[in-house]
Write a structure and sequence with these properties.
The protein has helices at about 10-20, 25-35, 45-60, 75-80, 95-110, 120-130, 150-160, 185-200, and strands at about 65, 85-90, 115-120, 135-140, 160-170, 205-210, 215-220. By secondary structure, the protein is α/β, with parallel strands linked by helices.
């Protein structure tokens, strides 16, 4: 028994993958392809993806929102977990990175489920709000530029239905959020959002140390 979260070693991570991870081949190929990318660290870990898929299924989600696509691992995980009539609105600004995502979506046969919006995410979110999408999403996943995390949360809260989930990635930020010497804008953005969510009585909340830290919030 332990009163604190267990520190993960490479050996323990391998064991977790061996006895728990169920990663379809198309997801494994995408993850391995992304490992050679200069920004490979931006990809979520597979056990986090598996948790997200479980949450999608537990919610019986049909409409989800993703802020930050990169090479598409999280959107592919979500699309595979959604029912046949499910849909993702996916926000990103990079045609280069999302071209890798689109290839994997086609390979998995889920491209029809994903509505990719190539524009600044705040513009896309504001457009959704102005077009009567308020409280229509079952789940939102935030994993984009950290300085805008508070603004993304504000919009996603309005777009997610009561009982829906908001997931926020990188909330532990490699430990930098706990280092007072780190005062860059990205770190400050994550800290600000975590403080906001901690005191937001409109949500149920849990920050879990999976990957680079994942906050799960359920909207009342």
């Amino acid at each position: 028994m332990s009163s604190e979260t267990l520190q993960f070693t490479p050996e323990l991570s391998k064991y977790l993958h061996k006895v728990s991870l169920r990663e379809p081949p198309v997801l494994k190929r995408l993850r391995q392809e992304t490992l050679s990318h200069p920004y490979a660290a931006m990809q979520i870990c597979p056990e986090q993806g598996q948790l997200m898929a479980l949450l999608v299924r537990l919610l019986n989600a049909r409409l989800t929102l993703e802020v930050g696509v990169f090479t598409g691992y999280s959107s592919l995980v979500t699309a595979l977990a959604l029912p046949e009539d499910g849909r993702i609105v996916a926000c990103d600004i990079s045609d280069e990175y999302t071209s890798i995502a689109r290839k994997s979506w086609r390979e998995a046969g889920v491209e029809r489920k994903i509505d990719l919006r190539l524009a600044p995410a705040l513009e896309t979110l504001d457009s959704l709000l102005s077009n009567n999408a308020r409280e229509s999403f079952d789940l939102a996943f935030i994993d984009a530029d950290k300085v805008n995390y508070p603004a993304y949360y504000d919009r996603c809260f309005k777009l997610v239905r009561s009982g829906g989930l908001i997931l926020v990635d990188n909330v532990l930020w490699g430990g930098r959020v706990a280092d007072s010497a780190c005062t860059d804008q990205d770190t400050q953005g994550i800290r600000e959002l975590s403080r906001t969510m901690h005191t937001d009585e409109r949500i149920d909340l849990s920050m879990i140390p999976i990957g680079d830290g994942l906050t799960i919030a359920r909207k009342h």
